[in-house]
Structures are given as C-alpha cells and as structure tokens.
Design goal:
The protein is built from four helices and no strands. Residues 1-6 have low confidence and may be disordered. The chain is mainly α.
C-alpha cells in the first residue's frame, strides 16, 4: 500500500484486510488467517513518520497561555497604586 510500487490491493479487496473488519472476513472465510499474516508482513514500517506529542504550534500556544496566566497571577499579587 505504499507509493513505491509494492503490491497494491484494489479497494474491494483492501476492505477485507481492514483491521476493523478483518476478523469478520476471516470468520466468513473471505480471507484466511495465513493470507492476513502475509499481508501484515508486506506492509512497510511507517513508525518514523508518526507525530508524537503536541504539534509545535499547539505547544507554543500552550506555553503562551501558561505565561499569560503567570503574568495575571503576578499582577494580582502586586499592590494596586491608585
């Protein structure tokens, strides 16, 4: 299922191997357990493409909000000069 020219499944066949429905497909006899295991081994490892944690812009927004809260707390503790 990669763009590198590996074996691609047509859309009708691909849904049989969908992890959400493959057990049903195996029980119905549409896919054998052996074929499913072979399919899993043929998939490329894409773990390095994943994003873990917060995206940078979300992390920056959260840091800005924390800084604003600290500023508000600091100004609330200062005696007011009127």
């Amino acid at each position: 299922m990669s763009r590198d020219g590996e074996m691609k499944l047509d859309p009708k066949t691909a849904r049989l191997y969908d992890k959400r429905t493959v057990e049903r497909s195996i029980k119905k006899g549409l896919v054998s357990r052996k074929d499913y295991e072979k399919h899993l081994k043929s998939l490329e490892d894409v773990a390095e493409k994943g994003v873990y944690g917060m995206p940078e812009n979300d992390a920056q927004i959260e840091a800005d909000e924390a800084e604003s809260a600290e500023d508000r707390a600091a100004s609330a503790n200062e005696p007011s000069v009127a």
